[in-house]
Amino acid sequence: MDQKRVKAAKQRILKALVETLGIVTDACKLAKVERSTYYKYLKADPDFAKEVENIEDVALDFAESALHKNIANGKEASIIFYLKTKGKKRGYIERQEITGADSGEVTIKVIHDGG
Each residue of 80-92: pLDDT tens digit? Predict the structure, then answer.
């Protein structure tokens, strides 16, 4: 595929990702590009990958906005979800989790002082 066609395909994908709020399967169908081609572009082109990441951030912002609207409307499940995820430092947790680096295991070493 020549560079002009590749560039055009990438632009169609990016436009479709915006329209589908980042849903890859739907965007590929809309752009008439195979999912495997999308992932090939994503892996090979850092600029394309960055643009995709920016679109994913927009989709996340959209979801967060909807969450805040639900909270403002008194939707209890949204309030609980928000507090469990954003309110942990204030004690809104169901259980305490202790993990090591990168959520790995914690090793505890007991040292006896001979006493």
Answer: 999 998 988 888 8
